[in-house]
Amino acid sequence: xxxxxxxxxxxxxxxxxxxxxxxxxxxxxxxxxxxxxxxxxxxxxxxxxxxxxxxxxxxxxxxxxxxxxxxxxxxxxxxxxxxxxxxxxxxxxxxxxxxxxxxxxxxxxxxxxxxxxxxxxxxxxxxxxxxxxxxxxxxxxxxxxxxxxxxxxxxxxxxxxxxxxxxxxxxxxxxxxxxxxxxxxxxxxxxxxxxxxxxxxxxxxxxxxxxxxxxxxxxxxxxxxxxxxxxxxxxxxxxxxxxxxxxxxxxxxxxxxxxxxxxxxxxxxxxxxxxxxxxxxxxxxxxxxxxxxxxxxxxxxxxxxxxxxxxxxxxxxxxxxxxxxxxxxxxxxxxxxxxxxxxxxxxxxxxxxxxxxxxxxxxxxxxxxxxxxxxxxxxxxxxxxxxxxxxxxxxxxxxxxxxxxxxxxxxxxxxxxxxxxxxxxxxxxxxxxxxxxxxxxxxxxxxxxxxxxxxxxxxxxxxxxxxxxxxxxxxxxxxxxxxxxxxxxxxxxxxxx
Length: 497
Prior knowledge:
The protein is an alpha/beta fold and 497 residues long. The radius of gyration is 23 Å and the shape is globular. The chain has helices at residues 3-15, 66-75, 112-121, 141-151, 173-179, 201-211, 244-249, 253-264, 284-297, 313-317, 339-350, 386-396, 401-415, and strands at 18-19, 22-23, 33-42, 47-54, 60-65, 80-84, 89-92, 94-99, 124-129, 158-164, 183-187, 217-221, 273-276, 307-312, 356-358, 433-443, 462-472, 475-479, 482-483. The strands form three sheets. Strands 3, 4, 5, 6, 7, 16, 17, 18 and 19 form a nine-stranded mixed β-sheet that branches.
């Protein structure tokens, strides 16, 4: 019997209870509220035997111990649907703050239907769509409208939007803030797509000035072209573009360090929350910590002093030494670095010196993934597997499920200003919940992949931890291998947009 069949059986047995003199009707659909039960309810700071009470609008009404639940069930007058996960962990849904959907314009790479279905299968209840790789990019208010029109009615989980900063679009930024973008992303080096050019130092002066006082987030792909760094690799034939070492030599850690140092130089005269996406080089973290400390000492009251950074599942799972020749499904930018660097990133996670973890799901069609690392598209597809990827590595290092919720749910929700709605199991927040089996395992194969182009550096890898069910505002959207019903997601924008 599969886990989901077990879950369904448990649910039926519990539903057939007498509650205050009334049998709960399994078929009528007249239940007013839902009670999610688990022997292992997981929050950032605690695990306990209890449940989550969800109201008629899909909002968490209460978080209850098992004793409180027993008392509640004997006194409550109205019907309540009970979903009992037994020993499965009940957790807040994942918030993935870094996803490239690419629709419209490059929908053959990825679209909202497939991206959000894959997210639901991976226990992700909210994604935030990056502003580039779609045509048009999300760099103007009108382009945001085009993006929203493509997404509306297609999303199986909730979707928010990043705006983009490119040279000359400063006058668009306030309008996009008012429309409800969670923040803005920009590049300091070539983005890889012509319609999203990188900004330079003069642009940065204008952008920081325009965004000062808006309360928004300014996120950077932090690589800066430098001319005085030795990029020669050692011990390999660097003339062979099919070797990963050849590509790695073109993106040394000094590029990240130079970019973060430049960004940090603007912080003393700005209150804009600055975020560094996909940190791969461990050496940038101390630079950010110094800038954060200075911000806090200067009186900044924002989350983490308004200076934050993320890393990604591929930097925590893979290392350069293991990448085979000709397999550009491993290519991303910044690149996957060596095992020593990976272990340093894990030290920073253990010490809470990084703030969140995202997928940077950056898909493409297979034709753009050749054996040539220098010519192939740089992007790793992983949105469906992030939770299991992180748990596989974290469990082996002695982390707990609460750490998963901290880095994959609460952290991204804080970054995006959604912490009063998403990212935790707490009264008043959306009932975005998952049942997760931390002891199960599965193999990544093409037949289980729901995102559009079934390319992955994790193909045929055994991952620990399996999402059994995913709920959006108390509504079941995924149940062990199957998408349930049509799109139930909402677009995260200001009212009226």
